[in-house]
Amino acid sequence: MPRLNATSRAKHDKERGAAGVLVAVMMLVLIGAGALAVDTGQIYAERAQLQNAADAGAMAAAQQCHKAGTCTVTQAKLWAGELSGGNSNDGATTVDSVDLSVPKQVKVVTSTLNGGNGFLTKMFASALNAPPVTVRAGATAAWAPPSSGSSFPLAISNHCYNLSSAAQTADVQKISYKPGGTCTGPSGTQIPGGWGWLDQSSPCVATTTTGTNRVGSDPGNNPPTLCYDVLSGWKTTILAGGEVKVAFPVFDDATNQGQNGYFHVIGYATFKIWGWKFGQNSPYEFRDKASDPGMTSALACDTPANNRCVIGQFVKFETIDSFGGTGGTDLGTVDIKLVK
Questions:
Q1: Which of 68, 245, 268, 318 is deepest in the core (most CB within 10 A)?
Q2: Under a CB-based contact definition with an 8 Å cutoff, are residues 262 and 214 in contact?
Q3: Is 165 found in the same domain as 119?
Q4: How many domains does the chain have?
Q5: Angle, CA 258 vertex, CA 254 and CA 261 arms, to 5°
């Protein structure tokens, strides 16, 4: 039977334990790689949550800043914080900072909130003595008056608009289309036979654009066809205690007559509607009598029978990414969008 000589036995003894060292080193590498993979996934997941929070916080702060007319960093940070936590799945989000240095923009930066220390502490890499990690995300929301949109097919003269830039709401007023028309002037006189009604792009909807484009007139005393359901919805909402706010196109000039008439739209003003008379009987007339709730004889337009009006007040209003483009005249209605 062959036997190891002394030289072979000494060489074997020197190599004893090498595999154990190699396994130990490889285990460290595998643990490190696993920690890196798991922790990186956790960081990306956390950043996605923080981005949701930053987006919501920036939109909320922008809405409130416009509604208030002005705001401070402290106020904007508070408004952003009210929505940022609720828009991250784990609710562990804090608003790091708010930047108002660019006019009509709010930038919100959110960061990790873990046990109140601002770090992601449940990290595998901590087993290798790696430091905790702070994750951040940012979003910027901007507000501007819209330049185009689709809404109820009725245009209002700029001489009717009376919302002060310093006020949240304006006085309640009646805008009459017949007889005579109210709050119109040389540059905003309504088209004879048009009464402010617009050509429809779809049932009871007119698509308009400010600037060089002009929108056609839909002649006649009564509203365009297929508005029955829309007006019924308005009535139901008001009777249930809700509010109906409509962004009407506002024009500064009108040309020609009847079907050949055109309106030059300059912007959009939101009207909180109290009542109306667009025709005879419900839902084409609603709360147009002096005896109706909140009405006065000065606002009523129920008599004579051919009177036509809309009753309410202009209000500041913020929409969320619902208009096409920006750049119209600022009439208190703005579209809020996330920007890069």
A1: 268
A2: yes
A3: no
A4: 2
A5: 35
Give the closest residue to 274 by CA, choosing from 291, 290, 288, 256: 288
Residue 333 lies in a domain: yes
Whole-number Cα distances in Å, 271 to 173, 246, 308, 325: 10, 5, 17, 21
167-192: pLDDT as tens digits: 667 788 888 876 556 665 433 344 44
**Candidate from 78-82, 121-125, 238-242 with smallest mean pLDDT:** 121-125
Average pLDDT over residues 232-249: 95
What's the confidence (pLDDT) of residue 112? 75
Same domain, 76 and 170: no
* Measured distance CA(218)–CA(307) in Å, rounded: 18
Residue 68 and residue 155 in one domain: no
Give the range of the structural domain holding residue 317, as residue numbers without chain letter.
148-339
For residue 275, the SS3 value is strand
DSSP state letters, 89-122: TT--EEEEEEE--STTEEEEEEEE-STTTTSB--
C-alpha 297/C-alpha 313 separation (Å) is 16
DSSP state, residue 129 = T
Alpha carbon distance 28, 83 (integer Å): 42
Q: What are phi and psi of 57, to 5 degrees?
A: -65, -40
Residue in this structure with the two tokens 């009871």, named with its chain if needed:
204
Other Cβ atoms less than 10 A from the Cβ of 214: the count is: 18
- pLDDT, tens digit (0-9, with 9 covering 90-100), for 154-170: 888 887 777 765 566 77
Token pair 């009753």 is found at 311
Count how many Cα atoms sit within 13 Å of the Cα of residue 32 in the half-sphere of its side chain: 9
Amino acid letter at 318?
A: E
| Residue whose C-alpha is closest to residue 92's, from 131, 63, 52 | 52
Query: In 3D, which of 198, 176, 282 has the Cα closest to residue 236?
Result: 282
